[in-house]
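Researcher: Please generate the 3D structure of the following complex. Treat every line as part of one assembly.
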Amino acid sequence: MQLVHPLVWWLWALLLAAFVIRTDNALIATAVVCALTLVVLKLKSKSYWSGAFALSAKLAVSIIAIRIAFAILIGVPMPGTVLFQIPEIALPSWMVGIRIGGPVTSQRLTTAVTEALMIATLILLCGAASSLASPHRLIRSLPKAMFNLGVTLSVATSVLPQTVKSVARIQSAKRLRGQNIRGLRAWRGIALPLLEESLERALDLATAMESRGYGYHGKTSKYRAQKFQLVDVAMITSVLYLLVLSPILIAQFTFGLLLAATVLIVALPIVIVPR
Amino acid sequence: MITFKNVSLIYPNAQRTILEALNFEVFEGELVLVIGHTGAGKSSLIKLINGLVPHHTGGILTGEITVAGRSTRELKPGQLSDVIGIVGQNPINGFVTDIVEEEIAFGLETMGIAPEIMRKRVEEVLDLLSLAPLRNREIATLSGGEQQRVAIGAALVLNPKVLLLDEPTSALDPIAAEEVLSILHRLVHDLGLTVILAEHRLERVIQFADRIMRIGDDGEVAIGKPGEILEDSPIAPPIVNLAKALDLSEISLSVRELRRRTESIRELLQDLPLPTKIVESNSKILLSLNNVSVKYDAKYALSNISFEIKRGEVVALMGRNGAGKSSLLRSAVGQSPIISGTVLINGIDPVKLTGKNLIRHVGYVPQEPGDLLYGQSVKAECELADNDNGVPVGTTQTIYENLMAIPNLSAHPRDLSEGQRLGLALSVILSANPDLIILDEPTRGLDYVAKNKLIKILQKLVVDSNQARSVVIATHDVELVAEVAERVIFLAEGEIVANGPTREVLTSSPAFAPQVTKVLAPAAWLTVSEVVAALDRNAI
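Model: Done. Output below.
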């Protein structure tokens, strides 16, 4: 069973991010997100990290919500069609150009939504890459020269998901001690045992790696060398084409064509990656 | 194979020497068992051998340690990885990759072994440890025993001459422990591997040991044949205690040997009446589960579980890893989402109980007692608990002082030994005065002395005259169950397969039978103390 090289998933996501930033279009970003969701649902790995996409989706949604809320409440007055009015707070005269409340224009909302969508897409791409190829696996493909970085990242990427589980466990223990599990004070009671446990885990892993000779031998080898295959090449080149050719596609043809091409290329792994 | 010459170890800021003037030699193909009280320095000794102490942990080391002719003074653990393999206390924390096969290959990859040779070596190790069917599995989805075997395989793949293991069976159920130990036994006998093993649960490992090393609390170490060391040791498995109680001329270490030597006593015991416990049938029901099912991701963790626990009962919950014990305990305190059925504590659904109302009905000591603790010292922790539970200042501390021989009030909870930490967590729970006390795997890190103390505490709790409490213990420790529980509920695959008196349940399955039962079978004796009492009564 030969999977896609973990590095390819990350490169793929990175190129898509560049593409989304370059086109700077809400519709394209939405298309990428939709296709991406399909890819993750179909192909996500079975490791601890497969939940990363769901987590990043939550983060993305809250970012969009916060950005829109702020756009409605605070901002620089902008001309345009007024959608609705909210009560305005009068600010001192030296704070000219800033307003709290007041008229909300459609232009302002559109800009805010587009901006938020861009950031959300980048976060989702990062989450998707983690879900598709566990960062833990990725680190093992690091070159030998990065030994210390490799240990540090290995420890971090394996401790982080376990920490999420520990929080749930400690929270339930706290509830059983009859304590409140929400609020700032409760966090102190959770953070302390959590920190201890994470440290202990990290040390355990570092000792285990050391005891098995990690980093002490000049040359390392691969048990099953992960070769770049046709699938990997196809994934990278397709996205690369999309990135390079997008301005031409828009200039020469229609926006609709670019949109269709985006969906097809992002969703391509569903068809070509073996499961 | 391993020589210690005049080795002493001190940690900075420590109040005592961990090991003092240690001289010994371990020969090729020996299995040496390291025993000692919790915190006596068993783990330190294990880690000294491959240089993790002091290279990784700090500490001042004097003397000379050599392994296969190489001194550990200059060499770091990584440079010794081809002669020494080590399996830590929690193997799950030490896994570098996600897949069984990759994990086993990891050590070879770091050494730069050619892929063709690597394939062959990985294949050999997979076969040796019967891991071949699991080769493509995610390590996180394996059972505890399987993970332990993967960790051993990952260490063995480098062809070490010495294998070090720190408490390899304490988290395992009896059957998984048996699997791991029989593999170790085979490695020693077939490959001449030298094994050093630290373990609390002597009843599981004693029969495999060639020699025993006992670390005293003063840092002094005695090494010798198991029979000599255990003769006068306070740390001894039930089989040794039984031999001593029966006044046999010498102790035996295997069930087979002791059975041979106790034929006449067995005949006598066969005819003596077994102690019976009078169960008060009219006491009130404290906890009842009715047709409870719990589901995680399309898989039933519990299906249609029904049972009752009455006031004044001590009930043990047993079963293999993953049988649903933890799910059952969590649902009993309203922590698992139940898809059908009802749970009632004192007639109330625990899901509806929060804060102080919950802790008055049920107290839960989790597998990691440290989860409950967040004070900066034992004293502060006790005050926090008084405050949380709404009891007069000093209540928790009094309970703690009654439980512990040396209360050690100024220590940080993290610096306590496992037994002390459990005692502190138990005191915190007890000060709220709950009717039902739940303990999840309480004896995992406890030595025999600490365990006996826990047993006394639990027995005192249920017979407390003011309040008839109940205790539920989920555990793999059959000897603990034999001592304290009146009833055993046995789970398998989320279903109750047995629910009856301890004597009946434990003696019916050879894997879960306590040592005394194995020796005295077919008579259903469970513990040394009941055998002694019966013989005394007979003598009068």
